[in-house]
Amino acid sequence: MMQRDGRLARGELQILWETPPYPDNVWAVSDRLTEELRTRLRDAFLSLDASNQDEERILTGMGARAFVPVGWQEFEPLLEAAIALGLLTRD
């Protein structure tokens, strides 16, 4: 953003390290909801289509381009980064 608005010229910034890709915009629901309702909610998020103008506005409003299903294993790179930085320990 600082390069785009002119506060920082190209070449003045050096990237030292980038985090590995990890899921963000995570949504979770109570396990007290019925399986049917949880499935319907999941499917509603997964079916949002940025090529549909109304749905694109929903995605943009949430800072997303799309939603994909993930499990705990997709968070492993984030966990490893936090451990490497001393923020967490593996128990």
Task: Sum this structure up briefly.
This protein is an all-alpha fold. The chain is built from three helices and no strands.
Q: Please give the count of helices.
A: 3
Q: What share of the residues lie within helices?
A: 25-40%
Order of helices and strands: HHH
Cα-atom radius of gyration: 18 Å
- Beta-sheet strand percentage? under 5%
Record field, number of beta strands: 0
Structural class by SSE content: mainly alpha
What spatial form do the alpha-carbon principal axes imply?
A: flat
Residue windows where pLDDT falls under 50 for at least 5 positions: none
Largest sheet, described in full?
none
What does this entry look like structurally?
This protein has 91 residues and is mainly α. Helix content is 33%, strand content 0%. The protein contains 3 helices and no strands. It has helices at residues 35-46, 53-61, 76-84. The longest helix has 12 residues, at 35-46. The chain is flat. The protein starts with 34 loop residues before the first helix and ends in a 7-residue tail after the last helix. The mean pLDDT is 89.
